[in-house]
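Handout, page 2. Input:
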Amino acid sequence: MKLLRRKAEVSLDDRLEALAEAADLAEGRLGPDTVERARAVVTRAGVRRGLSVDHTAVALAGATGSGKSSLFNALSGTDLATVGVTRPTTSKAQAALWGPDGSGPLLDWLGVPLRHTVEGESPGLILLDLPDHDSIELSHREEVDRLVAVVDLLVWVLDPQKYADAAVHERYLRPLARHRDVMVVVLNQVDRLPEHAVKRCLDDLRGLLAADGLDGVPLLAVSARTGAGLPELRELLEGEVSRRRAWSSRLAADVASSAAALWADTRPAATADAPVTVRALAPGPDIRALTAARLSASAEAGAEARVPSAAETAVRVSAPGEAAARGPVPGKAAARAPVPGEAAPSRADARTPETARQGPASTGPTPTGPAYAGPAYAGPAYVGTGPAGQDPVRVPAPGDVVVPEVTVSRALTRALAQAAGVPVVVEAVAKSHRHRSTAATGWPVTRWLRKLRPDPLRRLHLARGSRSSLPPATAVQASALDTALRDVGVTASAGVPEPWATAVRHAARSRSGELTDTLDRVVATVSGGVSRPPRWWRVAGAAQWLTVAAMAAGAIWLLVVFGLDYLMLPRPFTPTLGRAPWPTVLLIGGALLGVLIALVCRAAAWLGGRRRARRAAKALRARIEQVAAELVITPTRDELTRYARFAECVTVAAS
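Output:
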């Protein structure tokens, strides 16, 4: 029987470690801001884990006039927060504590000095009332951004008039889509709407949240004035506090978002003909058409469906400067209609004269930049549109990254050999072998003339493995080498997204400055090793000296005979070889035999020179391949391995 085992989840420790390693690996490759944000998440997670895990910091965040302070008072059963018409009413965050023991360091880290102890049945709950995220005061908005980034649980308080405001959706909700497990959305002030209008507003808001990637987030309709929905909200918060898991879920979401931001900095590599534009694989839903269809359906349902509030006529339109689609994001795909990573249409309030009398849609300036960098959605892959007629470039998800195998190509070896002067050296090896062979086995009578000619290897300072005197590479050879190095980088970076592809191409040329000296030493060492004389040179040399000895013996013998004849002394017996006397045979035969041995040795030296040249060429190619592997291929492979490890760490961090 086959047992199905559940895949083990990656622990928070492993994810934090993977994110820290991914940030280190991305140093100098990705944007410094993205890398520093990832490191800040790791640092922040380490601090939060060292603080009280028995307390859950819950923040009430929302726009001006959404009723955050009223809801804060209603949940705490106090009048701690100031409620009024004058805006803004909340300038500093304040906390209501249920069970304050041990919460001091946590609140100090959160930077909340205003603290109030509340009696109740929710020990461990820290409820924060934040300033308005769209306040006209910059310090208020900065306070909201700071606390939204660190609290354990977020409760977004919206109102029927501005629940579709682009300020909250584009600046906070959409970038925080990965934080759905630590987020609650509350539609406050429902006592101002008829019952059937409340349902319509909730349905519309639920659709907007789904478009933001927040489908499934708890959505409650409450009224701080009448108490409607407060028991459900209080029960939900008590459940989160009792589980004591919100802090770890928040850190896990932060890690996943940072990992997504790191991977989002990778993009399809631009071709030489045209830049690449990143786009989503499929179009997302049209929010305007969705809203118009809902309103049309409601209008056809009957006259009683009319809602005398801003909820009826709130139409969301795309704002200028709509965000462009981002690159691929690691992790699991969010269960939502749009493709992961696409830019959903922005929303703004379109108010009728009736709703305009109820007050402005926003009392503060609309934020111009996101509070959280990096995409909010997970997705498998994206494509980039290349030049016309070419297939789009697909960027793999981090878990699908495959590092190509990089080897030393023949073109690279050939270019290095030409730049190192290998053909000149190989020819010098053959000539040097013939030169030294003639000097060792030539006719002793004339071999001294060979010493007047320099050894070809010694002329290049290659005989003893010293630094050579080879001529520098020509412009053509240098250009061929540069092309070969560039081809290695281009081939290795094929399929690798930017900016990692640029790093791979740079790595292929990172040690090009060392090639000249290294190749020179290699050529000198290998050439010196092939200059050892063969053993037969000694035999041939000894034979040549024997012929010289025979010539000398014959010449001396003849001189003795000639001297005796000159002095008219009796001539001793002179043996003959046939009719030729031996002194003559020794003299002439030794000379002829010496010349013959020299000719045979010269032919053998020519053949040996060719063999030595082939051996030297083979040894030089092998050593040049080693140099190419060490100075070109290894840095390239290391960069590819770094990229693959980065993708692996991002996958673990985003899992």
